[in-house]
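> forwarded from #structure-qc
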């Protein structure tokens, strides 16, 4: 009986600890990352950013190149295709292809819109959570070309498939000036942004940090 009681107590404590950890979740993780990331008074600037692959430029490499050493590099698919295959579901591929989608579905995390590939595929765009131009100014200008290419093609954290209009509205804005229209995704978005910043040693502005603190208080 004592053994059973002890086992029940241990199980209850474990469950309570797990519940406590789950309840801490995103808000606490945001605050932990805010204590780690470099915060600057204003956005830095450094000349030389060019996304359009002009001769001698192309600072983040060819768009959606498979020639990278990320987890998905050299798999025969473009990075855009990798993102879609990772983030969409109920996927059917075109006959004979391992990369090209015939039909699939997703819920756009930024807007909450339900999207199907056959109806809306041309409207789906890929967002760089931490905008490439801001990354350049915040320190990517000093990276090797190899590191910049890997950053621009980082499917795991930096890239999100989203409704095209949301991506266009965001442009190169940071959290101080733009958050997803879907408020329920604010916590997740801010967490992803900070995870990218910390992982790649990129700074955020004080205005970004203030918005992130406010979001964390509501997570």
């Amino acid at each position: 009986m004592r053994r059973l009681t002890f086992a029940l107590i241990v199980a209850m404590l474990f469950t309570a600890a797990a519940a406590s950890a789950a309840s801490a979740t995103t808000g606490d993780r945001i605050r932990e990352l805010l204590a780690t990331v470099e915060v600057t008074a204003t956005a830095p600037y450094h000349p030389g950013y060019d996304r359009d692959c002009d001769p001698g430029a192309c600072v983040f490499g060819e768009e959606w190149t498979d020639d990278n050493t990320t987890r998905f590099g050299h798999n025969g698919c473009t990075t855009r295709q990798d993102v879609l295959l990772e983030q969409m579901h109920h996927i059917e591929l075109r006959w004979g292809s391992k990369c090209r989608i015939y039909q699939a579905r997703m819920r756009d995390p930024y807007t909450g819109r339900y999207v199907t590939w056959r109806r809306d595929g041309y409207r789906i765009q890929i967002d760089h959570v931490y905008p490439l131009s801001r990354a350049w100014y915040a320190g990517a200008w000093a990276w090797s070309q190899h590191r910049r290419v890997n950053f621009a093609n980082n499917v795991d954290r930096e890239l999100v498939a989203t409704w095209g209009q949301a991506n266009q509205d965001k442009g190169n804005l940071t959290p101080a000036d733009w958050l997803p229209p879907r408020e329920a995704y604010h916590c997740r978005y801010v967490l992803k942004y900070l995870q990218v910043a910390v992982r790649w040693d990129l700074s955020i502005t004080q205005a970004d940090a203030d918005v992130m603190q406010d979001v964390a208080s509501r997570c």
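QC bot note: The chain has one domain: 23-216. The radius of gyration is 20 Å.
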